[in-house]
């Protein structure tokens, strides 16, 4: 079976028999008249997509859930279904930056620019999430969430929002904290103003330029330079730069 159309079952009708109709030697369940839009699940693993589609269908009675192995299979029957509301691409345990996966995300997000493409993956790795969004996805859902939460997140994307797991936000905060820590590695040795002068010295800037950029008098810059030299026990500007680079080579970013 290349594709599957999964019924959206109302929980109150669990014991009602829904008639089947035959199409191209495959069976599909009769559709509800309330289903005005559709969601396409793309997954080349038939069992996985069938199970996911059935669970989703039980959660959303007004959305027709479709499951296909590829977008080409859906295109062959697209006229038979309600307008497309969103695409859920289940990559499973694959990496987003694998050529086949990244190309699929790019292609789908470009071809269906007005339809949100959401990636469902086993991982919630921060780097993978960022790459998925860079390639054009409008959301990233980890497989660790429940089906009901997954449906809510899809609805958020349809409404124009972009969802990423909380773990990604924590990872981003950690990176920002690390960045801030690296940005001021001299804070324990120099004052804030002296640290700014140190960075300018490392870039080989003259006192006049430093004074202009930091909005200081040139005489004030000279005082800062003398104090910096005393703290690192240097006798001239060149020695200041040499000692700082040697002392903080693992914490101060390389100059560009």
From TrEMBL:
It comes from the Bacteria. Pfam families: GerE (PF00196). Keywords: DNA-binding. Residues 183-248 form the HTH luxR-type domain. This is Response regulator transcription factor. Residues 38-158 form the Response regulatory domain. It comes from Rhizobium lentis.
